[in-house]
Amino acid sequence: MPTIDDLRLRRGQVVDEDFFSNLADILEAGLIKGAIDMYGYMHKDVVPDADLRYRLGSGNKRLREINVGYGYFSYSLTVQNRPVLKDGDPIYIADLYAQARISVSEAIKDALKPFLIAKEIEKDVAAMSDVFASDVPITRDGRLRVQLIVNIDAYSYLKKIPAGETSAIIGMLNEGKIIPARSWFEQDATVMKNDYVNIQFCPDARVSVFLFNISSA
After folding, report:
1. Which of 6, 37, 126, 215 is 20 to 30 A removed from 115 (C-alpha atoms)?
2. CB under 8 Å to 187, separation ≥6 — which residues?
3. Would the pTM count as exceeding 0.70?
4. CATH number of the domain at 115-215, please?
């Protein structure tokens, strides 16, 4: 294999076919058969000639994606401006507390957030008939929140079929008191997952009813 020195011309030397053959061989070795060819493909290990001297990319000239099988880092690794912990690193609870508190608080808020499971708006119902065509299933342990408006003074009832049972239990809302016409009424009741619930009124009335399930904390 010729070397670069073979291409250095000396005074009076004739440039012949051997010179161009050597030139072609060197170009092929560097551009086609080198560690990284002119098309960007790698054919052998790429090893720097000194330890910890060079960098790959920079803060504003970054590689878009790296796909590797293994990675070995002697010092540190930072992802999204945060250091990645490794064996032997100290962990300071104070550094984690603020973010952990925010995460826990958000998780609790999400868990306690009411979510709508059924509604009927301006529906005419007969006395002691179910508002909802089918009993409404409870999906989470916790509370059932009943919100309703009725067009006349009326009594309202919660019908509940406990999980695993077939018989319904019916009890009056608002501690047995009349719910005044056109007034907004809201009440919570404890429920378990797989309970079924419905609402009834007396006498005949036009009602709007919203049912929410709220998880236990």
Report:
1. 126
2. 145, 146, 173, 174
3. no
4. 2.60.120.1300
